[in-house]
Amino acid sequence: MSTGTRITIDGEPVDAAVGTSLTAVFVAARRWRLRDNPVSGEPRGPFCGMGVCFECEVTVDGRPGVRACLTRVRPGMAVETGPRR
User: Fold this and answer.
1) Which end of the chain has a smaller Cβ tally under 10 Å, C or N?
2) Helix (H) / strand (E) containing 26
3) Are 20 and 2 in contact (CB under 8 A)?
4) Is residue 27 part of a domain?
5) Which residues, by range, are in coiled-coil regions (predicted)?
6) 48 within a domain of the structure (yes/no)
7) 26: domain CATH number?
8) Residue 29 is part of which domain span?
């Protein structure tokens, strides 16, 4: 059974289960915009859910380009979303 922890998303605290995918945390929090398309500026979010499309890239603990669907929650994570231009 997973234990609960708190992570931050864009500086806001969010409760999450350790081992859950970041995408699941975003969906549960009803947060769909994870980044902006670098060319058109359109919002992007979870799409394939299996690491193929790169639409769910976020910054985790200062490391950009992390796919949220393949990344598991661990205590104290700092996640940033938003424009990538």
Assistant:
1) N
2) helix 22-28
3) yes
4) yes
5) none
6) yes
7) 3.10.20.440
8) 4-80
